[in-house]
From TrEMBL:
SMART domains: PGAM
Species of provenance: Pseudomonas shirazensis
Gene: sixA
Protein's name in the database: Phosphohistidine phosphatase SixA
Highest taxon above the source species: Bacteria
InterPro entries (UniProt xref): His_Pase_superF_clade-1 (IPR013078), His_PPase_superfam (IPR029033), SixA (IPR004449)
Length: 152
């Protein structure tokens, strides 16, 4: 299994609610930079947080890759979602090649949990950072971090 975890691009500092914060122009550029790293990858699905900035980031990735499948919005990819719940949901879906588009602190904790098997070593994920993990199954401590890239 290959799993890519992408943090949304830079977002405006304020909106009516955290969920409504939109990407800045710099955030759009960051998202496009990270999307380019996914060119040629055999993605089966793009799973995305319902928050606006994640939706915008995922849409830019979808467009860049000319990915024909619709984005799959899931409630378990919000900033404060449970890492264990996200892993359990991912395991049930059974995809071999999937991209998750979400937020801190979830993305860093998720990468750390899948790589190390605990929450004490979250990955440093700045805006539009992209982690690539590989393993037989999305279980804590059983995936290897193959790459962690940050937009320039």
């Amino acid at each position: 299994m290959k799993l890519w975890i992408l943090r949304h691009g830079e977002a405006e500092p304020r909106a009516n609610s955290d969920a409504e914060r939109r990407l800045t122009s710099h955030g759009r550029e960051q998202a496009l930079h990270s999307a380019a790293r996914l060119l040629g990858q055999p993605l089966q699905a793009i799973l995305v947080s319902p928050y606006v900035r994640a939706q915008q980031t995922a849409a830019l990735v979808q467009e860049t890759l000319d990915f024909a499948q619709p984005l799959r919005t899931v409630a378990w990819l919000t900033p404060e979602s449970s890492v264990r719940e996200a892993i359990a949901e991912l395991e049930q879906l059974g995809f071999e090649h999937v991209l998750l588009v979400s937020h801190q602190p979830l993305v860093g904790a998720l990468v750390g949990m899948l790589e190390h098997g605990h929450l004490q070593q979250p990955a440093a994920m700045s805006t539009a950072s992209l982690a690539e993990l590989e393993g037989d199954w999305p279980l804590p401590g059983l995936m290897s971090l193959k790459a962690l890239s940050h937009p320039g």
